Task: structure prediction
Amino acid sequence: MISNLDSYLSQIRSLSSLLGDSTMRIEANVRTALTTPEIYGIRQIILTGSGDSFFAALAVAAALRGWTGLPVHPMVSMEASRYIDHGRAPLSGRNRGLLAVCISNSGEAARLVEATHRLRSLGAITLAITGDPESRLAKAAEKMIGISIPSAAPAPGTRSYMASLIGLYLLGIRLAEVLMCFTMDHAGALRNQLADLSKPLEGLSDVCEPLIRETIDAWGDFRSADVLGSGPSFGSASYAAGKLVEAAGIHASAQDIEEFHHLNYFVDTPESVPAIVFGPANSLAIQRTRELVATLEQLGRPHLLVTDSGEFSPRRNVLVLPRVDELFAPILHTVPGSLISAFAAARRGVPHYRGHTGPWRGAKEAALVRNSPIDIQTR
Amino acid sequence: MTQSFNLSTERSGLYDVTAMAEEALEASKITEGMLLVSVPHSTAAVTVVSPWDERGFEDINDEVNRLVPTRIDFKHQHDTPQDAAGHIKAAIIGHSRMFFVSQGKIGLGHSQRIYFFEFDGPRKRTVQVQVIGK
Result:
């Protein structure tokens, strides 16, 4: 019988081939999703979803902003649905300048489907990024980018998160290319750069597993954790925190590196609340990351730093990944971000998603997120 | 034999490639015949222009852009608006020019030089020259 851990590790170890096999296939879908006039009509972009889909939005927003020069807002689906207009009359005509990118691998998250209906009725261009072209989301949206991937052994969303990242990165490159923010040659180079991340991903799990397993063992029976990062790495931190909750039932909070110094710094049991930090060396937040590491040590908080620089070595709590462009770092971060929760769940001996039994039985077959009534009445 | 030359371009404009053609002719040792200048690109062209006033180059660029402005509603939407316009400009101007060769010289008048015309740069481009004759 394949254990939860085996299934999860299988997904994590397959990410390299997934990226290599899927990128150009998804690119063909992206290229035809929006017409040139539609792209030139965009004045702002919302990236909306829930759970992993929202974390993918967080991870990619900085790239889209930087490449296109457009305002790009990651937004949870509740805000995109219920609070985007909050009683104001639709700004008819002008809303056509809003591109709402609605992300859900299953395409059945009720709040996101609701958001898509409402945004479409307000006049936005609604673009679904989903793995199911027959889903409620695909039918609610005006346009769709398919990101379906081969199924794998069940585990907390890992491959689906990677597929969402690929779709979003490729959308950003395409928008910037058509807007002539950079040349076609540069756009092609970025696409190849994305696809070629399959090379540093290959075998990365094997490299990371020993230190992460050792770190989780050293942390013992921790019940909460802070997961920290800035910019694209805040998306990575959010994803890793989400996996700790889903897989291991640990109360993990994602926080921006700057915000930590204002907020979770003040946790009153520092020795029992580990911190996981995603801090690429070429990050625009690297100086604050250095300060953070010093702060964590002064607090006596156990911590694991995921970086790509040897400047923090040699230390037992530093995981050094291959260096990539900061904007693409979330791709590689998926591996340690998932492994941490995989080993934490295995050490605690808990089933993923609490087995959808007992108090958590309501989440069986994603009922909690799929069956919430959809309310598309305008206010 | 076809000789190839490399050229790095900016976003758009005219690039004097007469020296490339003359170099290829000299290497061929041909003194009487025909010389072809060609580009293997769908968003670039070859043309002949007077070199004496640089502002004349701007006129040509401006008029080509006036005839084929970069718009967002071309039917060709696979790449960018500039690429789509570039295909049209290249089709109108043409991807090659043929010149006679006499007494070892290219048949160019006093106010004529050969130019590569970029419509969708910046790019790394190629100019090909073939000489036939005796």
In short: The mean pLDDT of chain B is 96.
